[in-house]
User: Fold these one by one.
Assistant:
Number 1:
Amino acid sequence: MASTSDIKNGLCITHNHAPYQIIEFLHVKPGKGAAFVRTKMRNLNDGRVLEHTFPSGAKLDDIRIEYRTYQFLYNDADGYHFMNMESYEQIPMGKELINAPGFLKDGMECMVLFHADEDRALSVEVPQTVVMEVTYTEPGMKGNTATNTLKPATVESGEEIRVPLFIEIGEKIVINTADGTYKERAK
């Protein structure tokens, strides 16, 4: 059992008979009345986000979880398929249970969150940054680095992001998967 003082980003709990992962939280101590914790949680069964407020000191039923490294293989009508690197076991996951499905590449290693007691896959976390090649963008302008102007570009996974004006087709760039933004040129 955990309490509201144990709440942090990534904590997994059982709420309303379903597994949830805390995405955001805020401890609030109003001038009048009791303190409380306002949370934003993601349902690990269907990916929906729920906002819930817990009174200060409330008991939470936490879940034992494990992270395991899996390799992304492919996606089809059944979902996105991942393979365990040690046992070669394959599991399909729904698109809604992956934090950034638009940035998956064949062979990419991802962390799969497992319910330790039930040995069941709950969600997939793509690495925080990925290196991808730009497959299409408008022609770049050399020397145009002084402004913060961005243009649309398509990367090898088919996802469209905004990049600076000097980026050209064929360049490899680093992308932040949390918000899908350009970070820098790959070295």
Number 2:
Amino acid sequence: MIALIDADSFFASCELSRKPHLRGKPVMVLGRIGSFVLAKTHEAKFRGVNTVMPYWEAKKNCPEGIFIEGDFRFYTLVSRRLMAILKQWSPVVQVSSIDEAYLDLTGIDQMHRKSFEAIGDAIREEVWQKLGITVTVGISTNKVLAKMACEKKKPNGTVVLPQAQVSKFLEGIEVGDVPGIGRQRQLAVKRYGVQLAQQMRDLPMSIIKNLFGRNGILLWKELRGEYMFKVDASTRIPKQIGRTSSFDQPTQNIKDVEGMAFYHLERSLESLHRHQLAAGELNLYLRDREFKRIYLNHSFAKPTHDFFKLAGALQTLVDKIPKGSWWRSTGILLQKLSSSKIRQLSLFEDVESVVHEEDLNRVKDDLNKRYGQFTLTSGSSLFFKKKNRKKSDDERLGVM
């Protein structure tokens, strides 16, 4: 038996946990540059606000709404406490995102002397009492069914889907709501008259293989109740690290592009340092007003995790950006990753300079960890954040 624990409206719930007076009100958490809605309470959803909706549109749909600039350091801390609670319930926990984890509960009911439903309820109650946020628990024979069950019970519910009830359950699920079935796959199975998940489950394996290949067969088998996608508790090292986002409006101002690029570089460096990795290549991604993509890249003689080397390389790439174009979005991608734990110095490297660089990076990381993200930041990203957060008094009314 596999459980999916999914926090309800996680970022918004985190804010309500420390601002309980806002419960029952339309609250929206804004993205890092305050330009779009990253999370919202159910009260905001009922007023027509959607995730990733631009700030101005959300303000128009819900003028009485309360807007809060995201505090991602706090959300990360809450996430760590959430995962620590879950690991008390099962020795096998796979963290799939900041607000979601799979637990292998096989045999756990015997150990705790509780039914699976009672275990789900107990997890929800413990999370609520200790963190002040709600979670939904879906339990079934594998990951896919657990996730589908969880979606049906949101928010703040527990549902157990045993094998005997799977077929009837799938009769009420649109095929597009099956995890892993995107728009293209949905169109593909519709050619065979498939509208519901149960109909997809009943297709012959040969058709599934022709349509979706090996991964499609694994998904199809999970719909049939088999356990194919294992709950993996190991920590996976990323093959690449990147961040990207769009501007409110397309811009010709290279300073805007530079500021957002440096902002994303600093965000990417957090992950790079956390995983103790170094990057052999830095890519600057751009998309223009016509959605044409441009990639500029810089390769390092040796992989590095040094902010100043990466920042210098990024500035070189920024200087190569074609002038006069309108830019819709930009981002950063760090590739050719390797461990930063062992560093082989070349014959001509100055040991004192290397030690000095390491000390500077460590101080920067320590300050940001202790006093909050971007306490110590680059001038380019600081300029960009201040520029984007500067709103008129009318706009800031109701913004926390």
Number 3:
Amino acid sequence: MKETELRQRLRAVLAGSKCVSPADIYDPVSARVAESVGYEIGALTGAMALISTLATPDLMVLTLSELASQIRRIRRVSDLALLIDADHGYGNALNVMRTVEELEHAGVAGLTIEDTRLPRSFGQPEDSLVLISIEEMLGKLRAAVSARRDPSLLIAGRGSLRIRNLDESIKRFKAYATTGIDAIFVVGLENIEQLKAIQAAVHLPIMLGPAPAAIKREALALHGARIVLHSHEPSAAVAKALHGVYSHLYKGGAPADLNSRIASAQEMDSVVNVADFAKRQRDFLK
């Protein structure tokens, strides 16, 4: 599917009245499985990009080229509209322009740029977060909008309610909305009252990091939220399954004992698209 069509799919969600959750994907296999069960939108977060490519914590040691390469691998096998966490844009406003160019070329449907100063500076307390100035963030967002070639590419400005109080965060969100971005991405939401206040102040679609489990998506939708991310349950499930299978086999367990815990041969054939490759062999290797 053409990239513009996928970007329009993502934009249609933001223009609608429902709040949806993309599949939390991280590699070609996870994307293909998510698509097979019906997902049309996938989200690749910075944490998942790091886990799937480097097996490291979310400490900004991934490079832009590594992220773009992973996206291209996913896009080769999947027609999910991909929403990408582009972190801080990999540097200053000029780096943000390069980031938008690379990720657009890789085929993303949308991306987010955040206002956190990354990576952590020398002497900065562990787990603490520092924001860049509003002025610097405005420059980054204007640069991001300027760099995109396809106007359907969605660009969102991200901010966290964990770092500043609600009033200060709303001040930032209102400023970000003046740059030509398409949405505000809010992380750290604690209650529906915060969402109501953001909706009243910022007249853009709202995207959310994982919201409190007690808040239903229908309630989020009523107050401007159009996308809410899951946590990283799929990758955690895979890690646990791998540990269990490896442990069973390492201890001498019989492979047949795993049949009820693993994908069947037919399911794996579907994941790796055996039917299509069989046709290619018949067509071109006879």
